[in-house]
């Protein structure tokens, strides 16, 4: 939204004494407080935004008014701030200037009509207007404009979300205001992407990604019908269609949220870069790195973006290269960071360079390669940054890496997702002692005990290998030549599965590792690895899908984020619009010929996400990227509370299992909050709400900065005070 001109306090007739300030809260030296009033009196559940450019990085603080319209902005650094209000049913009021220590009443401006009000609605309220092909149009035939691989409406919606929502929101002002109109307008947009790329070094990469992912991805839905659906959506909006529902204002504990928003991850010329994921602490012990920097993965520049909350400054750390050796590898593709107990930052590198390592495929030299060779055209690495020495080291590995998590069994083993065929790990303690990567790493293929004998056949030539029949046009069916691809399962054999593993977490009760199997997006599922006492021979895998209904549809689909609470319950966020809860202890079957996904419906339960559904479907208009379980009650909503990223609704959504209700933590400014991941840190266990916070990035892809209000990536700090006026 374009900011209105500033007004001084005198211009608004705002004084610091008198009857107008009678209900205002008491204000201390680092606070600004007052009352927000509209034409009919105090406005409850309205955001008050204070923003300044007078600090080392851009800075905003946002709070919510209480039931009497009162607000209190706490702990403001010394600067001059612009203050304004934003709320559903309103349009932005004109900003006023203020400094900490002042009481300032603010005027709320009621929207003149529904369209003006709807400009501030989250993207999912607009995306809900989309009218996808009806269920009766499936399966696709090609002749009906729908690709034959789209066998159901669930497949179509799941594939659309996985391909279109991976980079940015759908339904924001940028996507719903199409240059041109109709089918040809959408064809042009998908081919040309979202404007110029600021850095020529990544121009080719980004343009290729736009064409391949945007136009090519829509083509896999069935190009003609998909373009018709998209054109119908934006043409109706251009003709005046408005969201069916009005988003609710914050209520209850949602009014206790304090947001602090920091600018970070810029190049030296000030260009804002995408931070894919961030990390602030060790998930096992959230007091690690207390008060320290927050690290983010700048994927397209091969850097850690760093924000230091102690002095509100940002800086970047280069990832080095090895082939040839160089101090900065812009193509490293750093994706996800994790902090260990020493405060070191470990990172997955998506891209590869240099030759592969012989021990990844030489079974005569490496027991893991003998069991299952996992060669690659180029070498694969993991990075580790030591803040004490300021050095970044690279550790060679034999598997793809994407997300990572530590065990809590004393070995400091770090597990990785990100390979289509194996699940890999690195014993960081052993690496520290020897710097012998071959001795410190291990991996196992995903092999199910489908013959039910309690173990996995060590001869991979005896394994079944079945392509998921629902994979269709997706990149979910991969064979490596080590076993024939089969269409039917031989019940006398164990079975290898293959798919891209995305989100992952460790169950600290038994040190099993759980992964989100993201392909195919319908149904998706969760994979469990137990290494056993003598891997790789003792490794065993289990696979569980959301239950299938009698009509062939799934209870949920399109899941990628997975986490495990302290009781061993697995939580998975499904972009179809459900939070899945999986309790393995309820399973009657975990092995045998039927244990290929649908064997444990009794282990699942599902909770619907808040927010509107896509027209004519049961699918939620939101998109969930990842999930994070608050194991230590960092935020203050309770231990083991799962928090889901509302990547299409400007929010994080916390589910309270005991109360069976949602708490939506909306980021109203800048609009376009698209969180991929999050974590929580305790800086001061005795410091109350001020001593703890959840951290999350905007996470919008580099070429989609135009989708963010103001066009700048941010780091968001969420805190929960005991009431809306607590200091």
CATH homologous superfamily placement of the largest domain = YVTN repeat-like/Quinoprotein amine dehydrogenase
The rounded Rg comes to 26 Å
Q: What is the second-level CATH architecture of the largest domain?
A: 7 Propeller
Our measurement of the CA-to-CA distance between the termini, rounded to an integer number of angstroms, reads 30 Å
Derived structural class:
alpha+beta
Query: Fraction of residues in helices?
Result: 10-25%
Outline type: globular
The spatial strand order of the largest sheet comes to 8-6-3-4-11-43-42-41
Number of domains: 3
Strand fraction = 25-35%
CATH class of the largest domain: Mainly Beta
Average pLDDT level: 91
Helix count, DSSP H or I runs of 4 or more residues: 9
Outline the biggest β-sheet: 8 strands, antiparallel
Low-confidence stretches: 2-22, 194-199, 469-485
The CATH topology of the largest domain corresponds to Methylamine Dehydrogenase, Chain H
Structure commentary:
The protein is globular. The longest helix has 36 residues, at 203-238. It folds into 3 domains: 19-118, Immunoglobulins (Immunoglobulin-like), CATH 2.60.40.10; 123-238, no CATH class; 252-720, Methylamine Dehydrogenase, Chain H. The chain contains 9 helices and 43 strands. Strands 8-6-3-4-11-43-42-41 form an 8-stranded antiparallel β-sheet, with no helix packed on it. Helix 3 packs across helix 6 and helix 5 runs antiparallel to helix 6 (203-238). It is α+β, with helices and mostly antiparallel strands.
């Amino acid at each position: 939204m374009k900011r209105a001109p500033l007004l001084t306090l005198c211009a608004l007739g705002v004084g610091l004494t008198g009857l107008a300030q009678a209900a205002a809260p008491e204000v201390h030296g680092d606070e600004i407080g007052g009352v927000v009033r509209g034409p009919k009196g105090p406005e409850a559940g309205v955001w008050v935004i204070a923003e300044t450019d007078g600090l080392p990085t851009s800075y905003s603080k946002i709070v919510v008014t209480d039931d009497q319209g009162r607000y209190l902005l706490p702990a403001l650094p010394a600067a001059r701030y612009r203050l304004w209000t934003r709320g559903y049913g309103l349009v932005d009021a004109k900003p006023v200037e203020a400094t900490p220590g002042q009481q300032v009443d603010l005027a709320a401006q009621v929207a003149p009509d529904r369209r003006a009000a709807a400009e501030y609605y989250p993207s999912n309220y607009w995306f809900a207007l989309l009218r996808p092909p009806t269920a009766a149009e499936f399966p696709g035939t090609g002749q009906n404009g729908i690709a034959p691989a789209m066998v159901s409406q669930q497949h179509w919606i799941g594939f659309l979300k996985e391909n279109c929502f991976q980079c940015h929101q759908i339904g924001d002002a940028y996507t719903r205001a199409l240059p041109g109109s109709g089918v040809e307008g959408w064809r042009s947009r998908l081919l040309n992407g979202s404007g110029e790329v600021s850095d020529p070094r990544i121009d080719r990469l980004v343009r290729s990604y736009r064409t391949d992912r945007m136009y090519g991805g829509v083509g896999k839905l069935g190009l003609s019908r998909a373009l018709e659906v998209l054109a119908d959506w934006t043409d109706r909006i251009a003709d005046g269609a408005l969201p069916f529902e009005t988003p609710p204002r914050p209520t209850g504990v949602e009014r206790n949220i304090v947001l602090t928003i920091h600018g970070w991850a810029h190049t030296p010329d000030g260009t804002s870069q995408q931070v894919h994921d961030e990390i602030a602490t060790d998930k096992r012990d959230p007091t690690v790195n207390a008060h320290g920097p927050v690290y983010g993965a700048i994927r397209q520049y091969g850097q850690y973006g760093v924000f230091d909350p102690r002095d509100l400054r940002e800086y970047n750390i280069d990832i080095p290269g090895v082939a040839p050796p160089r101090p900065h590898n812009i193509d490293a593709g750093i994706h996800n960071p994790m902090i260990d107990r020493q405060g070191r930052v470990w990172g997955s590198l998506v891209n590869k360079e240099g030759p592969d390592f012989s021990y990844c495929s030489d079974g005569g030299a490496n027991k893991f390669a003998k069991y299952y060779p996992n060669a690659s055209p180029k070498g694969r690495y993991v990075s580790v940054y030591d803040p004490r020495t300021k050095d970044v080291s690279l550790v060679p590995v034999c598997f793809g890496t994407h997300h990572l998590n530590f065990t809590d069994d004393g070995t400091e083993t770090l597990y990785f997702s990100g390979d289509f065929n194996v699940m890999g790990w690195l014993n960081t303690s052993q690496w520290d002692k020897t710097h012998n990567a071959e001795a410190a790493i291990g991996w196992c293929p995903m092999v199910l005990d489908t013959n039910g004998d309690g173990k996995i056949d060590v001869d991979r030539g005896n394994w079944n290998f079945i392509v998921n029949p629902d994979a269709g046009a997706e990149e979910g069916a991969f064979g490596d030549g080590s076993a024939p691809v089969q269409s039917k399962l031989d019940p006398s054999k164990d079975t290898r599965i293959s798919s891209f593993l995305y989100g992952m977490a460790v169950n600290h009760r038994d040190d099993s590792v759980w992964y989100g199997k993201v392909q195919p997006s319908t149904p998706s599922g969760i994979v469990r690895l137990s290494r056993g006492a003598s891997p790789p021979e003792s490794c065993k895998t289990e696979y569980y899908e959301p239950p299938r209904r009698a009509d062939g549809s799934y209870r949920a689909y399109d899941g990628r984020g997975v986490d495990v609470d302290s009781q061993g319950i697995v939580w998975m966020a499904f972009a179809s619009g459900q939070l899945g809860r999986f309790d393995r202890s309820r399973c009657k079957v975990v092995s045998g010929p039927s244990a290929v996904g649908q064997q444990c419906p009794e282990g699942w339960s599902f909770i619907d996400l808040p927010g509107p559904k896509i027209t004519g479907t049961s699918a939620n208009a939101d998109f969930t990227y990842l999930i994070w379980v608050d194991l230590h009650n960092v935020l203050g909503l309770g231990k083991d509370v799962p928090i889901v990223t509302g990547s299409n609704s400007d929010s994080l959504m916390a589910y309270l299992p005991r109360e069976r209700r949602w708490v939506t933590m909306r980021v109203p400014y800048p609009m376009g909050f698209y969180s991929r991941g999050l974590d929580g840190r305790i800086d001061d266990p005795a410091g109350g709400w001020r001593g703890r916070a959840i951290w999350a990035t905007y996470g919008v892809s580099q070429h989609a900065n135009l989708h963010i209000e103001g066009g700048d990536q941010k780091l968001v700090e969420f805190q929960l005070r005991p009431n809306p006026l607590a200091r």
